[in-house]
User: Which sequence fits this backbone?
């Protein structure tokens, strides 16, 4: 992990140096010129931002897309419904991130003494909400373990909530919509390749298919 962190810092260092000299209209430039109480951020502080933003902007989105495609390919009748009516794609995205959240847990610190479910949580305690479990509460979702793009719309917790809502959720939704439309445009009769394959979703913190072998028809 430390080696990977240093590798990312080495990757970002010349980019940050260039943005300090020649700011552009991008996030790294904004961090380079930002001030807090009259002081600029140090390189190490900016690298900390970027080490989080790079995977946050890529990993959860590709995992969410993989889970969506897996859900559709293993429920062909729902995939056919989307082929016939692409306006269903947004609700399919919401169902996919509810059914198989790309990130199952997230750590927070209690800012004051509180109680949840009869359990006392002192201020300063680390808590780890289980997003995947919250998305499958039987008192909130009917048949919560099933993938069903037609279920009544109810907000899920995969995007976070309140002050902790995901800043990139609108971009992630857009990327997934674009990807699904391109798959439908370019890969006719897309389907799972089950010849000796057993694709499945796995992971204890981050979840997505390890591989998703597919077949599709050739185009002229």
Assistant:
């Amino acid at each position: 992990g430390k080696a990977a962190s240093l590798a990312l810092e080495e990757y970002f260092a010349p980019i940050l140096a260039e943005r300090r000299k020649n700011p552009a209209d991008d996030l790294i430039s904004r961090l380079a010129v930002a001030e807090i109480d009259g002081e600029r951020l140090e390189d190490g502080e900016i690298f900390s931002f970027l080490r989080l933003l790079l995977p946050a902007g890529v990993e959860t989105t590709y995992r969410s897309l993989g889970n969506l495609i897996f859900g559709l390919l293993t429920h062909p009748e729902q995939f056919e419904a989307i082929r016939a009516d692409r306006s269903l794609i947004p609700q399919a995205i919401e169902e996919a991130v509810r059914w198989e959240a790309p990130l199952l847990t997230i750590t927070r610190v209690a800012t004051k003494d509180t109680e949840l479910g009869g359990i006392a949580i002192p201020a300063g305690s680390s808590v780890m909400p289980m997003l995947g479990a919250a998305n499958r509460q039987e008192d909130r979702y009917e048949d919560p373990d099933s993938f069903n793009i037609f279920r009544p719309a109810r907000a899920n917790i995969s995007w976070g909530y309140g002050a902790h809502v995901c800043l990139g959720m609108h971009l992630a939704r857009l990327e997934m919509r674009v990807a699904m439309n391109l798959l439908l445009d370019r890969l006719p009769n897309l389907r799972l390749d089950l010849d000796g394959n057993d694709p499945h979703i796995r992971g204890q913190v981050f979840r997505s298919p390890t591989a998703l072998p597919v077949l599709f028809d050739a185009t002229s």
In short: The first strand starts at residue 35 and ends at 36. The helical segments are 2-21, 27-33, 43-73, 76-84, 89-99, 131-134, 169-186. The two ends are 47 Å apart (CA to CA). The chain is about 45% helix and 10% strand.
